[in-house]
Amino acid sequence: MDKVVMYASVSVDGFIADQNDDPGPLFEWLLGGDVPLDDSGFLNVSQASYDYTRPYWDQVAVTIAGRHVFDLTDGWDGVPPSSVDHVVVVSHRAKPDDWHPEAPFHFVEGVEAAVAKAQQLAGDRIVEVAAGDVGGQAFAAGLVDEVRMDVAPVVFGSGKRYFGSLDVQQLLGDPEEVIQGNRVLHLRYRVQR
């Protein structure tokens, strides 16, 4: 498999959060269904969203995120999100001094180093790059093979863009999957090379 996927929930107008980093209603689809998505007891989705999301999550071995997201989430308290095996954090700063020593988090500089480290850790499983500035950098560098979006029915008007500050045009293939869930439209595209 060995592919790199850029992924996030996104507003119809292309934002992954507002100016204050609040995702607002972007994750309603994860809470409003009747099918448990994981063992947390917190995430419940429609059957269509489960059938699309669960197999994908099961294939992801490593998530790449930026230091900003790491700081916002307090590093998920040392537990990688969505049951991935490792998190690679793109940062110019070292990991926090008081950080969980056993946590499978790796701090690197630059998206190229992050993707290389993540691919080494992932083996033949998927590397996921969080959308936003780091995802946009990886996309612009030609390191992303596939784009996945969970499009929520909301317009933000401004905020944190799905592709970050990307300013180059890149064609995607036709949608490989278009799945309608409850309060979400799941889209999957291959990146054209």
UniProtKB/TrEMBL annotation:
Source species: Psychromicrobium lacuslunae
Domain of life: Bacteria
Coiled-coil region: none
Gene3D superfamilies in the cross-refs: Dihydrofolate Reductase, subunit A
UniProt-recorded name of the protein: Dihydrofolate reductase
Any one Gene Ontology BP term: riboflavin biosynthetic process
Residue ranges of every copy of the Bacterial bifunctional deaminase-reductase C-terminal domain listed in the record: 3-170
One Pfam family here: RibD_C
Sample GO molecular function, one term: 5-amino-6-(5-phosphoribosylamino)uracil reductase activity
